[in-house]
Amino acid sequence: MPKKAFQFKPPEPDIEINRPHEQPAWKNPWNFSIVYFLVMLAFFYFFQAALTVQREEIPYSKFQEYLRAGQVAECVLGERQIYGTLKINDRQGRPKRFITVPPRDDQLAKELSAHGVKYTVRYNDNWLRDFLVGWVLPMLFIFAVWGFISRRLGTMGGNFLNIGKHKARIHASNEPGITFADVAGVDEAEQELEEVIEFLKNPQYFQRLGGRMPKGVLLVGPPGTGKTLLAKAVAGEAGVPFFSISGSEFIEMFVGVGAARVRDLFVQARQKAPCIIFIDELDAIGRQRGGPMVVGGNDEREQTLNQLLVEIDGFDASKGVVVLAATNRPEILDKALLRAGRFDRQIVVDKPDLKGRMEILKIHTRKLQLAPDVDLELIARRTPGLVGADLANLANEAAILAARRRREAVTTADFEEAIERIIAGPEKKHNAMGKEEKHRVAYHEAGHTLVAVSVPTAEPVHKVSIIPRGIGALGYTLQLPVREKFLATREELEDQIAILLGGRVAEELAFGDVSTGAQNDLERATEIARRMVCEYGMSPELGPRTFGKKTVSPFLGSVVAEERNFSDETAERIDAEVSRLITAAHRRVRKIIGERRPVLDRLTAALEKREVLSGDEVAEIIAAAADSGPGGEPAAEN
To answer: What predicted TM-score, i.e. pTM, was given to this entire model?
Structure first.
């Protein structure tokens, strides 16, 4: 279905772009230091000029006449001038001041002493240098320290005075923004957000029947699925200002700063309505309250959350302010945030399916020079589970590889290599294995491959490699899914366990011994078997029950908490069932590989020679082995 095109654009508000709360220039410590220096320099200049005006400049010969006549009261002998007072008065009745420029006279001090004149000698007399060293440099040092501390503590444009101001990036409606044409793979979420766009454009349309739009819309989903991109697309389609801020930017070391920033953000948003406030990583401030008590009965994060709840309750949604937020941990959010009247609408932005991945690849390859052999559908099939950020990285990696190889266009081989880099890690060209290790790894991967083509529900083998990649991966067997699957049957899970055990069994039969190379395979096989027993109720012995209570992050996949709700006797039965599943799969795999040992040997020899086999090459080797005689026939074609 073609995406809805939005043509109407509301009047553009008068807003300064990307300049959130710029501080006045006079508050900047460095500007203030420069102004202070210039003012003090001017003050000393005029002060010095004023002193020069009050003193009468006389020739040095006249000074000698005053000295011999005994009329010099006191003087200062400088390096470039002599100044002081006389015993005679001026017109105002005050002692007359003088200044003169002396020649080099070594006898002057003796003459002054002989006539009883009080004098002071000053060498290197330079008022400008004294001013700089005695006043300017100390003040510049003080302001430099002040500016450093302000940047450390304030983090608001480098000024401590603006610590309570919000840090949102403001994007005006007249900026060339992102629209739904730049977003793909999240059609359901786009349809939900179209109502928000229509409301921002024409709020009266919804109010005529007495309805109101939700004040807050929460975007939840795995990392990299495009939640932030969707929020920007909503602002771009609606043509309204967009306030973007991360939840962590509300928090500072000073209690009350986060709450002040929340208040300031909403004040600015009301002035620019209609607009969108977008809070990324809401869980940074929206975490469930009620943890350990701190000094004063509360902490900075909870005060910030309380203020956010108050602000969302306090503003009128009809004014055209919509709060969008994004998180990948909705299970830890405070219940008060999710109640009706706040973030009462949740939109799931999930991983894209095959069609969605194709659309995302089309967007990220628009600027690439693609070779005629590039099939985006095949690339989409090769990347199940990857999100939009991963696919963008895939397109960029393929372009970099093509440029490195001096190609004129990005080819399928570049995309293949980029996929393997993302899934298995970069190729270790200088990590050459010894002949014996290479022989063992070849048998290991051939065992995985042989079982994968033998069990009935396995996905087709796409590539087998014994080239080391990533961290600790000496080889890998890559399977390509035929279609998107969201459920797994017991038979499929048992086949997955069998494929994982194929490498270890191949080593047992070929060498009579095992190695550490199957560690990850055993870990994954044991996890599947335990989940079959404890979570899926697939154990005939224990029946359709679940054991243990796990709190799992739905989008991050990590176990937040785990609770045991069964007895020790049941735990023993669970362990016995897991062992039974693994043992049964082990016997099954030994039978498959034992019956098709010639196929295993041929696959191993081909891997040692070529190092990489495609799915078609694997099929040719198996077909050739089947035609060669007994032991090469497929083991599971039923």
So the answer is: 0.67
